[in-house]
Amino acid sequence: MPNATWLADVLRGAGLKVEERPAWKTRGTGELGTVRGVLCHHTAGGLKGNAPSLSLVENGRPDLRGPLSQLVLGRDGTFYVVAAGRANHAGAGAWQGVTAGNSSLIGIEAENRGDGSEPWPEIQLDAYARGCAAILKHIGAPVTMCAGHKEYATPRGRKIDPSFDMQAFRSRVSAAMAGTTPPAAPVATVDPVLAMLKRGDRGDDVRKLQDELGISADGVFGPATEAAVIAFQKANGLGADGIVGPKTWKALL
């Protein structure tokens, strides 16, 4: 199977929220071979924001060329489609006869610290399981072809991701493949132009935000606007990170 240009359509077809990154269909370190399964990771990235590791996964590190996976899974259950080609996510390892993980497994980097300091949100775990199920069904692979990096990597103990129990997770994936889980919650519809604002941003979207918050609308997302956003998020039971994403917009509008 050539490059996985089908990824976005398959995930959307499963009722999941998908954001296609620019030029993802032509991004990769080379061409994929036959896709035989999915390899699950966590990012160990920052605590703030929906997908703070997205740029790193797309562009790589000084010691490792990007992309570092085909997919990034945000904390709100959004799949960011990063690449259709081969990605540097697997390294040395073996799972169910697969030893060339970069060429044979779709990598999913899920945003989570992975050190026990951050619970896994149910909305994210649900999307993770449904996304893996959709990919496995598309390629005609059994649930055993959903592996954790910690299960694949050699020598054993070299990797700890993802931080949740993979046997229990595969049970969720199996249920999603069989269609025995409840339907996915409807995806919130928010104007994509308003999808993300943070300190330092400027423009009409910031003015709209300030109007909704009832503060002076100068179009500059500065310290006062950030403080108002955090206060609003706390008052509405949202993650108080000062970043205005889909959940905050939904509560505002």
Automatic annotation (TrEMBL):
<comment type="similarity">
    <text>Belongs to the N-acetylmuramoyl-L-alanine amidase 2 family.</text>
</comment>
<dbReference type="Pfam" id="PF01471">
    <property type="entry name" value="PG_binding_1"/>
</dbReference>
<dbReference type="Pfam" id="PF01510">
    <property type="entry name" value="Amidase_2"/>
</dbReference>
<dbReference type="GO" id="GO:0071555">
    <property type="term" value="P:cell wall organization"/>
</dbReference>
<keyword id="KW-0378">Hydrolase</keyword>
<dbReference type="InterPro" id="IPR036366">
    <property type="entry name" value="PGBDSf"/>
</dbReference>
<keyword id="KW-0961">Cell wall biogenesis/degradation</keyword>
<dbReference type="GO" id="GO:0008745">
    <property type="term" value="F:N-acetylmuramoyl-L-alanine amidase activity"/>
</dbReference>
<dbReference type="InterPro" id="IPR036365">
    <property type="entry name" value="PGBD-like_sf"/>
</dbReference>
<dbReference type="InterPro" id="IPR002477">
    <property type="entry name" value="Peptidoglycan-bd-like"/>
</dbReference>
<dbReference type="GO" id="GO:0009254">
    <property type="term" value="P:peptidoglycan turnover"/>
</dbReference>
<dbReference type="InterPro" id="IPR036505">
    <property type="entry name" value="Amidase/PGRP_sf"/>
</dbReference>
<dbReference type="GO" id="GO:0009253">
    <property type="term" value="P:peptidoglycan catabolic process"/>
</dbReference>
<protein>
    <recommendedName>
        <fullName>N-acetylmuramoyl-L-alanine amidase</fullName>
        <ecNumber>3.5.1.28</ecNumber>
    </recommendedName>
</protein>
<dbReference type="InterPro" id="IPR002502">
    <property type="entry name" value="Amidase_domain"/>
</dbReference>
<feature type="domain" description="N-acetylmuramoyl-L-alanine amidase">
    <location>
        <begin position="23"/>
        <end position="163"/>
    </location>
</feature>
<dbReference type="InterPro" id="IPR051206">
    <property type="entry name" value="NAMLAA_amidase_2"/>
</dbReference>
